[in-house]
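[09:14] KT: can someone run the structure on this one? pasting the chain below
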Amino acid sequence: MLEEIKGYQADLIVLAGYLVIIPEILIQSYRNKIINIHPSLIPAFCGPGYYGLRVHEAVLNRGVKVTGATVHFVDEGTDTGPIILQKAVKVREDDTPEVLQRRVMEEAEWHILPQAIELIAEDKIRVKNGKVYVTVQP
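[09:31] RB: done, structure tokens below
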């Protein structure tokens, strides 16, 4: 996989719905060049076992009032890399996991993933000591 990606001379790797653990050698070769979108406000409802509808089922079972989505850099852990952007979404009393999943995608994921890509493309993102800094022009 690493050689194939190197052949494309990729500047950024975007994981959106890619439910496979990335090999450590790929992460090391593309440190802070791989981003992922996760359907919760990390650090809540993330890590091993939290993907797809499982995230939204856990949100509803816990009874939280706000969920959302997170764009983060990929590191060697599961959903543990530096956070780039987050957006909150209200949980409604009549939500089902499927309805909540759709709303999180529409209200959060579809907004912050392109925004994060744009910030990275415009070289407005810096990572220092595991934290993300965004350069904002007045």
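[09:33] KT: thanks! The CA atoms of residues 14 and 35 lie 5 Å apart.
[09:34] RB: yep, looked fine to me
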